[in-house]
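Dear colleagues,

For the upcoming journal club I promised to circulate an example of a predicted protein-ligand complex. I picked one with 3-hydroxy-3-methylglutaryl-coenzyme A because it came up in last month's discussion. The inputs are reproduced below in full, followed by the predicted structure.
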Amino acid sequence: MSARVGIHDLAVATAGHVLELDLLAESAGIDPAKYRVGLGQEQMSVPGPDEDVVTMGAAAAQRIIERHGADGIRTLFFATESGVDQSKSAGVFVHRLLGLPATCRVVELKQACYSATAALQAAADMVARRPDERVLVVASDIARYDLDSAAEATQGAGAVAMLVTADPAIAELESAIGISTADVDDFFRPNDSATAVVDGKLSIGAYLDGMIGAWDDYRAHGGVDVSEIDRFCHHQPFTKMAVKAHRRLADHTGVPLGAELMAASTGYNRRIGNSYTASLYFALAALLDSDDDLAGRRVGMFSYGSGSVSEFFALRVCDDYRTHTRGEETEALLAARTPVDVPRYRALHTAAAELNSRVDVAVEPGVDAPFHFAGIAGRARQYRRA
Ligand code: HMG
């Protein structure tokens, strides 16, 4: 990539309710330390009936449009694995809700948690060819597993929107990329299921194998030595997974990699839970918002999507990135979530699966958010601005 291309702005959104995992542990008779320490998770965002990947994605992207306008945005990539339709891109709803021009193409990408990274790379290549264009990348997901399953504490919800441009203000994408793809049934969601099917132990092993495969391919394709990487963001289905990944990379390379090189990246995901495609970019947002010594530093990014596709790449943080971080905005979003108890969380979880099978149903606005899922009319999903 000859031109400087990368992330010019980044904005996040999450669901309107929050469950303290201590409450979930107590209700299941589990030691709360298993979730806090064993998984590295404190809370999870819980969507209401009027929220889905479209409403969260639109809420995140709206901040980008408010700050930069829509001029030059000719592509919107919507990355998700909890899409709302088998044919129509969730991004087309976002396109209308944000009033984007008709001259903006919209595509949805799917490969478990990985597809936002594919979108980011494709966006960067597009901008490298046409530097006057800007690409909006939206990653939005709701992680739902069965109630009372081992995976229940690793649910969550959130969206990250990124504006990819030439001469970016936050971080430049480096050209070296490492990839590793393997057909594995560690995690998937059949078409008729509202919740994912997961083999937890297999998925942890597949994630770590994918990381090593992607790392070796990164090195074989011009990637720098691990000692030249200053910070790390690893995909965070739960934040302890990123700690395991970091240790495995240190073992594999034989270079001691202190926990402090990745610790700041876990701050948001500990409180949101798994947001699948958005998770890695919540990690990047947390790092940028809480580490004020990143100017000129290289950040190693590991993206994993079950099934599985893995990618390792690197960003170079721009000198004045501090003027473009959004820590206060994100803290306010997290603090504004309505706390729910376990019975209310369970009712919301059950209602979500039931809603999707309806032909006609009206959904009243429930949470304080800029966009709402308003129901289904003749099987077509309806969305409104607040
Ligand atoms: P589990 O089997 O109930 O948990 O489910 P466990 O018994 O393995 O315990 C978890 C950790 O807590 C262990 O730590 C325990 O020792 C510890 P570790 O040995 O692994 O370091 N622990 C305690 N710590 C302190 N005090 C205690 C205590 N008790 C236990 N009292 C599992 C855990 C993650 C498997 C489950 O939640 C699950 O299946 N989650 C979903 C799958 C998942 O997140 N996989 C991650 C890799 S795959 C991935 O990242 C892709 C994904 O994002 C999807 C996509 O790509 O689209 C999921």
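Two points we might discuss: The longest helix spans residues 200-220. Residues 294 and 317 are 6 Å apart (CA to CA).

See you all on Thursday,
B. R.
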